Amino acid sequence: GEVVGLAGLLGSGRTEIANLLFGVDKPDNGTLRFKGEAIKKFSPNESIARGIGFCPEDRKAEGLVGELTVRENIILAIQANQGWFKFLSKQKQYELAERYIKLLDIKTSTADQMVKNLSGGNQQKVILARWLAINPQVLILDEPTRGVDIGAKTEIQRLVLELAEEGKSCVFISSELEEVLRTSHRIVVLRDREKINEFGSGEADEQKIMEAIAAGDS
Asked: What is the three-class DSSP state of 112?
């Protein structure tokens, strides 16, 4: 597996690329390939069926359903993938929820606690749990550690690297260059929605990335 970090200034196109990869937006031109095959149908449901998960930048507005419980949020993706006419049994729902609550150390009183009442870090873990439940091949993470405490940030970074060790691929987006460097095996530098440079593991530091961005401006 591999973690590909996207680095760039605000407005460089990082989030736009994440939305394209997951099928939230459709490309105007060009080709997107998954496992070597060109993708013709773009939609979140198609992406989920392919094994692609997405943790959006605005977790409260786009990621979580605040009026649902921790359990209900965790099972959303796997239920969508299975189809809404084949409901998961309550037993299966609780088994999945409890499994990922334990695995990710989600601080919640019960699986039926309202997700809006959790801390930012634990809300982010609930979104991660949702996608881990579908055993994703690719996980797109847009600012996954924004607004969480240092402990949760470290746990999320560790989880990303563990997923790569298990053979999964991650696209990691963060406005903190130090975090991108620490978490990524390969870093793609963006400017004005275009790739302007790429660095392999150990090839880059914050200064080199900023120099690459500045060079793209010249």
From this structure: coil
DSSP code at position 64: -
> What is the residue whose two structure tokens read 């979140």?
44
pLDDT one-digit tens code per residue, 195-208: 999 999 889 899 99
DSSP H stretches of helix in the chain = 14-22, 44-50, 70-74, 76-82, 90-103, 120-132, 150-165, 177-183, 206-216
Side chain identity at residue 213, one-letter code: I
Adjacent-strand bridge partners of 190: 195
pTM, 2 dp: 0.89
Question: Over the stretch 33-82, which tens digit does the pLDDT of each residue have?
Answer: 888 888 888 899 999 989 999 999 888 888 899 899 999 999 999 998 88
- pLDDT > 90? residue 143: yes
Contact 145, 156 (CB under 8 A): yes
Q: Which CATH superfamily is 2-216 part of?
A: P-loop containing nucleotide triphosphate hydrolases (3.40.50.300)
Q: Which residues pair with 85 in a beta bridge?
A: none
- CA-CA distance, 198 to 204, in Å (whole number)? 9
The mean pLDDT value of the chain amounts to 91
Q: Give the residue from 215, 212, 217, 205 showing the smallest Cα distance to 189.
A: 212
Q: How far apart are CA 144 and CA 64, in angstroms?
A: 13
